[in-house]
Fold:
Amino acid sequence: MKQLQADYKRQYDALKNERASWLPVWKELGAYLAPTRGFFDGQQPNQGRRLDHKTLLDSAPCLAVEVLCAGMMSGLTSPARSWFDLSLANEEQMDLPGAREWIFDVKKRLEDIFAKSNVYGVLHGFYEEIAVFGTAAFLVEEDRDKGIYCRPFTVGEYYLGTDEKGRVNRFGREFFMTAEQLAHTFGVENLPSQIQAVAPHERANKWYPVFHLITPNVSHSPLLKDNGHMPFASLYFLEDGHLLRRGGYKEFPVIAARWEVRNAADAYGKGPGWKCLGDVKMLQKMQKTKLVALDKNTNPPVMVSANVQGEVNLLPGGITRYNGAADGAVKPAYQVQPDLPALEAAIESVRATIRSQFFADVFLSLTAQNYTGMTATEVAERHQEKMLVLGPVLERLKNELLDPLIDRAFNLLARQGLLPPAPPSIQGLPLKIEYVSVIAQAQKASGLSSLVQGLNYASSLAAVKPELHSRVDYECALEEGLKALGVAPALLKSKEEALSPTGDPVPHPGSPSATTTVTPTETAETSAVSSVAEFSEK
Structure:
């Protein structure tokens, strides 16, 4: 047991050493772009941090970060509208008895859990962290009241490690607890004697560093159903190595995403903040230069004659006594005439560069640009083209944020018995996730123009040779166009209904009128869980 604890302690120290080279840049990013974020230099809870307002003279970079966060929140995971759909991986199996009703019920329960938990509050801070620092993480745990609970982290308080495929599979963090909190969380009997003996008046005031490590479990055994043999081990220990608790997780519980990873071996990513840090520093220096120029212009340095009596009064209407001849007693040492229009234009150019780095122009494209004289179709197409620049980033967020979040929430709710049992006809079948957020639909709709151009080309040829009309499958084109626009195919009548002489709808077996299934272009697979696990994670 002691040897096992020593191995885990070495893993934690290795994660800490690997992160050391990233800290200097993170501190600079936090100082210039996210002054309220980051946990550095041995900070403790409930300690305020002084902001350097002599450095932060222009708030445009922080505003650009906020625009990106708001755009990602509303466009990718909006709390106000549905942003994902579920279906079976094989669409032909959706007609199995009870399949549509069960999938619709599961989706609604997931949405309800996300709405009443703190998921969306955590996601807003998550987007800010990943935009500025390039890496963001939070922990998803079981909550007996709300189903799930997300514990957010800020850069500097956690460590990440990856497997051979570059996927994050190790996590460590350092946090602080009082003796009272330690006793309540881990039990008095599990605390070292020196903490048990802490005086009553110090139990709620003195902070102790606690370390948490989540890593692949070397003792994992699928045959043993206890916390110590789960796929991932969870260990809490003190600075001296004293083990407070050993538990486990059935799947990796940390949602850790990187904006961009240049090297597959890197555990941390780089985001827009890394690329525009130099521009941000230049902007703050230019603002300082402008303020100094204005100050010298309105209150210039002066030369004072030796004949001046007493102190020079520079206040408006002030009087300075002077015994001299014709020369002035006080006059400017030199004339300052700054070219303010040119300086403002240069500052605005740098601001525009920073806004573009944070995609603010993408998310504000409908309000920041003049679309006078353009049709609604042209405006929509330009908006969709702008969304394409986020394609690589959104693909990584899909793989490292959205898919793991839904999978983790699904499994936690299933183990708590908060999901309905799956019908026998679909038990064990894989599920498929489709993202239907505003950004996802905008990216899909960008392909609609190619479809329309193709149909127009076919129609122009058919005007010369009418028999070519039979070569075009217009029903398929209609379905693909509706998918690109994000319209539910359930709005279309089936072929039987369309050919029915009475026009009466033909009921679809096992299909409620309120549910739809859209064929996804971005999918993820998980298991259809229908029973409660025999144990809970800790």
Observations:
- Residues 503-536 have pLDDT under 50 and may be disordered.
- The longest strand covers residues 168-178.
- Residues 1-76+115-295+340-378+389-423 form one domain.
